[in-house]
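User: Okay, second chain of the day. Same drill as before: sequence in, structure tokens out.
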Amino acid sequence: MWNKRNTVLLSVLLALSASAFVEELDDSFMERRGADDIWLIKFYAPWCSFCKQLDPVWHQIGSELRSLGSPVNVGKSDATASTGLAKEFKVRGYPAILMLKKDVKYNYSGPRTKDGILDFANRVGGPLVRSLSSLQLFQHAMNRHDVMFVYVGATSQLKGNYTSAAEELIVHTFFFSSSRDVLPKVVSLSTLPAVVVFKDGTYFTFDEELDGDLKSWINRERFPNYLRIDSYTLYAMGESGKLVVLALVEEKTPCEESVRYKGLVEKVSADYREFYSRNFYFGFMEGSDYINGLVMGEVVVPSFIVVNLSSDGYFLPPVAVKTERHLLDFLNGVLDGSIQFQGGNSIYQRARRFIYDIKVTLTPVFSQTPLLGCFLVGFLIAIVAVFFYFCCRNRPTVSDDDDDDHTKRSNKKSD
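Assistant: Same drill. Structure tokens below.
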């Protein structure tokens, strides 16, 4: 009995100590905050189940940032009560995670995990551009980051553009600067200043004539050329403007065919990087649930698909992809337009996707509780019927128009 009571008391104390690092914010927050304060804020609604699931993780984040001596303050706000603050941050859904740093607001759109949010907080909460003053620091940064952008040289217009790009894209990736003598000797730069991206075991420099706008180039190159892709990553890749070549494989125990598909995509991404890297990212995705929603059907696993998340479109190989040559022909066909583009975000496609989403949602309901499914469908049909009824009722008929004209003519005759 004593041990049980002590355990409960200890749990309460731990919960209270964790909550001490997360401040509840209301509409007065913007007026009383310090000008240089950095805040990581979660907007929630009391009825939101995802918000409740995130709550213990949020308190862990507050505790860890405080223990590390981070300058980032952690808060949360009930968006249904503090509507002014929610409007200030343009909150549209729950939970919404944002960071406020010197009047600049940054939105977090990554996975709702402790590691993902902490990485976001440390990245945005620190300097926009981090200086690498020694070869040891450079090597340490290389070991920590799959993709690393580095400005090399003295102050210039290019550095100003680089800093401006960092202010907007810091939510996605880290930015560094260094002098030429800090870089490894194998790195050869023809001119300075320069912006260099290190990834996939190699590096290449920004060329304004070939690559266009610096910020757009950074946005395109902020992912490794080949990687494991989840739904969050795939959605973010849509902002890069590149197409994504995917091998869809089993989630837990990949079969021999899945392993071959993954290896084929990885090999093509490495051997033909210079030819395809401007147009494609490569990777593999476990399972096909997300892609099923995109194509509005069941995609066979394992299989290949090329997706364009900027337009919700996709390409499917016209024949089975069994060899490297088959995959190359498929990619070349996507580029030259001989492979049919499917999907898209037209009104017709949006309507189809809406119907598909309803079908996917209701199918398990019908299979498990048929009565509830019938009620939901009947309720939806009733709403649509009432809507059309009122639309038709308020619409003027031809006879009404004739009566109005007849009345006007009679009044005019009387006059």
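The chain has four domains: 15-125, 130-220, 226-343, 369-403.

User: Thanks, on to the next one.
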